[in-house]
Structure formats: C-alpha cells, structure tokens
Amino acid sequence: MERLLSMKHRVDPMNVFRDNVDFGKFDQN
C-alpha cells in the first residue's frame, strides 16, 4: 500500500507542482 501511494505521488505531476508552489509561497513571502 505505501509503495503504491509513493509511486502515485511521484508519478502525479500535479501533486509535485502543488507541493513546490506551497514551499515557494513560504520562501517568497
């Protein structure tokens, strides 16, 4: 189960993009 979720998170570009945007907001603001 954990392996499946990890792979899905890695393959899903929207999740990665959203994560980067969230961290970027903290850095810029």
Order of helices and strands: HH
- Distance N terminus to C terminus? 36 Å
- Uncertain spans, ≥5 residues at pLDDT below 50? none
Count of runs of 4 or more consecutive helical residues: 2
How much helicity do the residues have?
Answer: over 70%
The share of residues in extended strands comes to: under 5%
Structural class: mainly alpha
User: Using DSSP, what is the number of strands?
Assistant: 0
Mean pLDDT: 63
The profile of the biggest β sheet is: none
Shape: elongated
Could you explain the architecture of this structure?
By secondary structure, the chain is mainly α. 90% of the residues lie in helices and 0% in strands. It contains 2 helices and no strands. The chain is elongated and about 30 Å long. The model has no long low-confidence stretch (mean pLDDT 63).
Could you write a compact summary of the structure shown?
The chain has 29 residues and is mostly helical.
Helix-strand blueprint:
Layout: H1 2-11, H2 13-28
